[in-house]
Amino acid sequence: MTTTAFGSAEPAVLVLEDGTRFEGAAYGKTGTTLGEVVFTTGMSGYQETLTDPSYAGQIVVMTAPHIGITGVNKTDMESDRIWVSGYVVRDPSRRVSNFRSEGTLDDNLVEDGVVGISGIDTRALTRHIRSAGSMRGGIFSGADYSADAEALVAQVNAGEQMAGLSLSATVSTTENYTLPATTERIGSIAVLDLGVKRATLGYLADQGFDVIVVPQNITPDDLLALKTDAFFFSNGPGDPAAASGQVEVLRAGLRAGLPYFGICFGNQLLGRALGFDTYKLPFGHRGINQPVLDKATGKVEITSQNHGFAVDLPIEGSHESPEGFGQVEVSHYSLNDNVVEGLRCLDIPAFSVQYHPESAAGPHDAHYLFARFREVVLAGKGESK
């Protein structure tokens, strides 16, 4: 057993594909897990992060040192389960102190089978990833902790690479379901579930849409057969270059003249549907404090993000869509590294952003985008409200 400031736990080790090791204590379920090691910079919102399907396949490192103080509750769940492959924290809270709490994070991790590690220098780990880039890793505790160091590195390097990986089928619904509009109805919208969060669906319903959530493997004909007034592609995990089927569905909707709004993965897929490329970022953008410039207004938005890929376009000027959808411009970009954070089509009713306007968790700077899309749909109907 390992003695920590928070009690006794079995020893654990985090091993990166380059051989770097971080010794700590088991946190959550004891065992072995593999995934892409990434860091997120949010000071709060750990439950929303854990239950965001976009984090499937990833071992998430919290840069905030003290995690778990507010416990967990059903209201803040963004899906039915925890999706991260592994969890890395420095100091797990010794007790829960929040009137909304219905349980502890520790118990939640065990219940959902999430292998984690605590008590490591997460600052040093984050700085390493910022220099070397996100990489495969593994957390080993219990019997596997004592395995030969070289064998553990080999096991990590035998794991899947995020580049080229399709994860949509892992996180998507398998059948259609509908959420009715919660305010005056303006129409219906098809939401392609690539790992959608509950808050997103709620905000679309709040704008007057009957929300029809559809599986990731829907065909172009099935999408058009729904006869919705608009369509939406959600956030989600994986490499957009491995999502050719979803790109074809998106192109079919655009060619049919349906207004389109995409977020996160949906932004990358819009880029590919228009005929542009995407690429993998060195360590991605994750957290609830990412600064983005809205080129139309000159305003800076602080946004919630989780992405490891981006659209490959110059941030200035307009660009002709190679797929025949007219002119396209970058609407938003990151103030940290000039990465594309939004696209706006000038000749068709379509736009997207690379971040999370539903802000669960995070600031509400980008919430206006849902209302903007409502106006786009109404304008297409010759209405205005």
Automatic annotation (TrEMBL):
Region of interest called CPSase, as start-end residue ranges on this chain: 1-185
Annotated keywords: Amino-acid biosynthesis, Arginine biosynthesis, ATP-binding, Glutamine amidotransferase, Ligase, Nucleotide-binding, Pyrimidine biosynthesis
Coiled coil: none
Positions contributing to L-glutamine binding: 54, 236, 238, 265, 268, 306, 308-309
Keyword Repeat included in the entry's annotation: no
GO biological process, one term: 'de novo' pyrimidine nucleobase biosynthetic process
Role played: Small subunit of the glutamine-dependent carbamoyl phosphate synthetase (CPSase). CPSase catalyzes the formation of carbamoyl phosphate from the ammonia moiety of glutamine, carbonate, and phosphate donated by ATP, constituting the first step of 2 biosynthetic pathways, one leading to arginine and/or urea and the other to pyrimidine nucleotides. The small subunit (glutamine amidotransferase) binds and cleaves glutamine to supply the large subunit with the substrate ammonia.
Name of protein: Carbamoyl phosphate synthase small chain
Source species: Mycetocola lacteus
Upper lineage: Bacteria, Bacillati, Actinomycetota, Actinomycetes, Micrococcales
